[in-house]
Amino acid sequence: EIYTLSLHDALPIFTPGQASPWEQLKNAPPFDPGTMLLDSEGDVLVHAEPPAGGTSFWWKLTPDSTGSYVNGTWSKLPPMPGGYNPLYFASAILPNGKMIVEGGEYLGGTPTWTNKGAIYNPVTNTWQRVAPPTGWTNIGDAQSDVLANGTYILSQACQDCLSSSPISTSDFAL
Question: What was the pLDDT predicted at 116?
Fold first, then answer.
């Protein structure tokens, strides 16, 4: 289940026993929701994450004409590029409105620590593969962020996550 909180007014201070400000969506998602990102148009992009592992499927929750997510509608995005069905990954909305997804601790239900990646373009409704930073054999469930100056940063979780060799870390900016 997904709930939404209206932020039209400043958040009030709540006391024990007071009613919750959260509201359940009227249109439940037709999938198991996972990672969620708010895009620059106000839509919520949600990765489908069933118990069996990662998928290549994303959905979009579009608010109604009044801006309410409670009454919003779901639409399915095209699948990510073939063979890229991550679970536990880095992701962000870039300054140009595109969504980047990098790495994945799993592909499907298989532990992989992949270095695959893709960018979703909401204008063309298409995905494009993204090459990993030079020399990176793993990304896995790395952290990422977009800095105030628009730079996307990605932290490498480990260099060789599938062996007992020493773990090293590095950072990369796009």
Answer: 96
